[in-house]
Amino acid sequence: MVKGKNTAGLDLPLPTSPVGVTKSELAYQAMRDGIVNGLLQAGDRLPSTRVLSQRWGVGRGTLESVFERLQLEGYITRKVGSGSRVSATIPDRYLKAVNTSQATAAHHKEPAMVEAAPVSVRKRYRAQVGIPFVARLASPFLISPAEWAAHLQRAMVAMQPEQMCSVEPQGAWVLREQIAKYLRNHRGIDCLAEQILITNGIRHSIDLVTRCVVKPDDYVCVEDPGYPAVHQIFEQAGAKLLYAPIDQEGLNLGGISSEIECRIAYVTPAHQSPLGEIMSATRRLELLDWAQRHSTWVIEDDYDSEFNYQSAPLPALKSIDTMNRVVYCGSFNQALFSNLRLGYMLAPPELQRKVLDLWHTVGRSVGVSEQLGLAAFMKGPAFLRHLRRSRQEYQTLRDIVLETLRAEAPGRYRISGEHAGFHLILWLSSDQDENMLINAAEQQGVVLQPLRHCCREIELAPAIVLGFAALTRAQAKYAARKLGQLLLPTPS
After folding, report:
1. Which CATH fold topology does 145-382 show?
2. I want to staple 151 with a disulfide (CB 3.0 to 4.6 A). Which of 24, 188, 377, 418 is the partner?
3. Domain HTH gntR-type: where (predicted)?
4. pLDDT value at position 282?
5. pTM for the predicted model, two decimal places
């Protein structure tokens, strides 16, 4: 028998097998539930597969695959000679928001990352995975076409005739139910299915809200630096943009005149795009108070909030919106795959009616099959399992980039915003020429997106927005090595 803290592991019962459930799945659930429920504590050494095989009557090969799955999802760590141990922080804590009062200083993130490169670079690399270090792209390798097709097929076979002809303008009820459940359990938002509106994604949601409330020459408050694509939505509506700077507490409204009435304030409080700062609890309350006094709609972009690598996220801003001023926008395009084109919004009743009227007028463009397929995916354990695996893989890719840069070019840069999301900020040393670095990198197939393309009025030190999510591990290591070499001083 292995030595160490494994008594709790031996006491774990293997549930009786219901029809259609494999021993592998039962063993996985027993181990995972023991970790999540606290029977197995952080750092506890687990029994060996041999001991568990004798205890549970399950083959060692089956148990080995269970251990590999738990390791892949981040529940346990495995080391030759040391056995398997419960991870210091289990992945469920990264998916579920913690109470604000318990986590004022907790780190979390969400971005609406940039298409920060010049137009020529954007057009060339925007939709291509495997191009380092293009930001705002999810990995296409984490959900297989076969797996997604299986959910679609299951949903289509169960589809009712009326669903083939007509779906509510707000979206399929079964999907809205699943989204509302997810928001209650993981973002701290007390909501119902009837409050959810299905869209093509966050920018689609923002465009609908903008068209309902913004008239030419209305003021809209945005973050600086911020997300250029959203700025363009407001500008195309004829809005005048007011730029609120970002500091360590997030959005700072101190420079916005109290005499100006803003129709909208657009914010990324969970993980500011692109800097990665978390809006403090104090700033969140100040923003909501300011919005109430000025009759301003606050658009909360909760992009990428599923992927936290350091701690559990704070609940969404919407969760403390007692005055009904916040429009909450979310998306599955990063959690699953970029071209899914499926998002949602949760709007206050007054605004929801206006959005629905507009939605009726311009037509509805989210296919029912995709909605029902996603609902089927979310209904079982597969969706949260996918998020756990994805978070683990993105953290691994991030670590590869950071460790390789550290080995290649120590002291030649500073990193921030790395605790969540699909990108980080690499601040250059004072003797480095940003333009020369970008051009030299492109010659070697490495795309560097300068932070300055996200800035409007604010002036920041030279830095690069470094996306790592849409790479393989080998690509991440190779590209980081190339970048590290470029960061070194040029021999005189």
Report:
1. Aspartate Aminotransferase; domain 2 (3.40.640)
2. 377
3. 21-89
4. 93
5. 0.77
